[in-house]
Amino acid sequence: MENRKVIYNEHTNLLELEEHFYHLVDVEEPNVFRNLFPYDEVPKIAFNNRIVPHNMPEEIWITDTTFRDGQQSRAPYLPEQIVTMYDYFHKLGGPKGIIRASEFFLYSKKDRDAVYKCMERGYEFPQITSWIRASKKDFELVKDLGLKETGILVSCSDYHIFYKLKMTRKECMEHYLNVVRECLETGVSPRCHLEDITRSDIYGFVIPFCLELMKLQEEYKIPVKIRACDTMGYGVNFPGAVIPRSVQGIIYGLITHGNVPSANLEWHGHNDFYKAVANSTTAWLYGAAGINCSLFGIGERTGNTPLEAMVFEYAQLKGTLDGMDTTVITELAEYYEKEIGYKVPSRTPFVGKSFNVTRAGIHADGLLKNEEIYNIFDTEKLLNRPVLVAVSNTSGLAGIAHWINSYFRLPEGKKVDKNSQLVHMVKEWVDEEYEGGRVTVLTDEELLEVIDNSCKKLGISIL
After folding, report:
1. Residue 248: enclosing H or E segment and its boundaries?
2. 271-299: pLDDT as tens digits
3. Is residue 124 within 8 Å of 97, Cβ to Cβ?
4. Who's near 173: CB < 8 A, 6+ residues apart?
5. Please, are residues 110 and 81 in contact by the beta-carbon 8 Å criterion?
6. Are strands 290-293 and 357-358 parallel, antiparallel or unpaired?
7. Measured between alpha carbons, how far is 250 from 238 in angstroms, rounded to an integer?
8. Which of 169, 187, 275, 407 qualifies as a FRET site for 312, CA 20 to 30 Å off?
């Protein structure tokens, strides 16, 4: 105790006692935390009530893995599709580049063509980075392309070290450090993807490994970044939960004991237990500057943290969008459906067809009086998505008129009112449906067909 230094923390303005130095624990048998992860049972969330402080960095950002992890779970994108989405990400991120980086495969000619085309755009943000196999040849490829940073897979749980790599912890760490050194020798900044961190021995392997990585950063004067990967979605954000499942415990350990600067640290979450967004926000709150996301959450298995979700998490935490253009989110959703053919589930927040459609009759009544009652925010302003009220037997003439005006986005002067012939014709059809015993709300497709037929009979067009 007497030999430990007293140091000044510039973030908290408090004196602190220097933490212990953590050494590699080279075990003979893998520690797979069977008490937390009994494979034939549901995983367990245990608590030790150790609480760590909030530590949100002054500057936080989003990084994107749509073209890497997002592409691993679907057919490869065409180069022109990647360029279009990259353009959208640039516009969405705004002048401050809140969407800081986007990572790309480099394996095939198509992959590299997409990178070249995106580089030709000349954008500062998102910065183009790569994800490669850990080999000297691939490092040279990254450098030849003119990229400054690349991701390297460094799996860190004993599941991977012992069962997949067939190594001891010591052998694995030495192998990883040699690979990272090779990358640094080429002048490229390595981004170390700590795969399966939520099943790893944090203080027996991860922290000692990160301490060595930070030594290499000091030696080469090139940033060594850390991506904490919740590969299986086991992370939890409950105060007092034990590591390795505790998100805040992991982030605290990496910063305080692993000497990883917040600006070098990002969180990569998966959604296997519906916690990707909450865990990602928690990582921000406890010290990670970056959150790695995929558009619409599309990724391996249940997917990654949705990029669009973290845009709104950012705004809620910071109190500002910092110049991000959120209407681009709607443009991306429309492009994805029309050009790529992916149907976004209708109830997906912010991008689904029905995310701001009110269906319950009593809710619709309130919404027609004041949309703030049942709309999360001004979705027309922020997403170019006016709030909609689904038509049912309780909608009335006003509800039908509201649906038509909102769905077709009719401007002032062209809007229909509840006294129009068109609205009355649609209302007659709606009444007949429910008088015949129907109990469900009407679908958009049904209403569009009725409106189209009614317009033909009236000889009018509402567009």
Report:
1. helix 247-252
2. 999 999 999 999 999 999 999 999 999 99
3. yes
4. 24, 205, 208, 209, 212
5. no
6. unpaired
7. 12
8. 407
DSSP three-state, residue 342: coil
The neighbouring-strand residues paired with 131 are 105, 151
pLDDT, one tens digit per residue, over 323-366 is: 999 999 999 999 999 999 999 999 999 999 989 987 765 566 66
Closest CA to 277 of 261, 297, 259, 253: 297
Report which of 145, 135, 151 is spatially closest to residue 189, judged by C-alpha positions. 151
Question: Does a cis peptide bond (omega within 30 degrees of 0) precede residue 244?
Answer: yes
3-state percent breakdown (helix, strand, coil) of the chain, nearest 5: 45, 15, 45
Question: Phi/psi at 5 (nearest 5 deg)?
Answer: -75, 150
Read off the pLDDT of residues 388-430 as tens digits, 9 standing for 90 and up: 888 888 778 888 888 898 889 899 889 998 899 999 999 999 9
pTM of the model: 0.92
Phi then psi dihedrals of residue 189, to 5 deg: -80, 120
Dig out the tokens for 125 from the structure. 């943000």
Taking the C-alpha atoms of residue 290 and residue 242, their distance in angstroms, rounded to an integer, is: 23
Q: What is the distance in angstroms between the CA of the first residue and the CA of the last residue of the chain?
A: 77
Between the alpha carbon of residue 295 and those of residues 44, 87, 142, 267, 350, the distances in Å are 30, 13, 24, 16, 12
Closest of 230, 294, 290, 236 to residue 265, by C-alpha: 290
Chain-centroid distance of CA 93 in Å reads 14
For residue 102 the two structure tokens come to 């986007």
- Long-range residue pairs from 78-84, CB within 8 A, at least 24 positions apart, any chain: 78/110, 79/110, 79/113, 79/114, 79/117, 80/117, 81/339, 81/340, 82/114, 82/117, 82/118, 83/114, 83/117, 83/118, 83/121, 84/335, 84/339
Helix axes 276-285, 307-318, angle to 10 degrees: 40
- Cβ within 8 Å of residue 72, ≥6 positions away: 299, 300
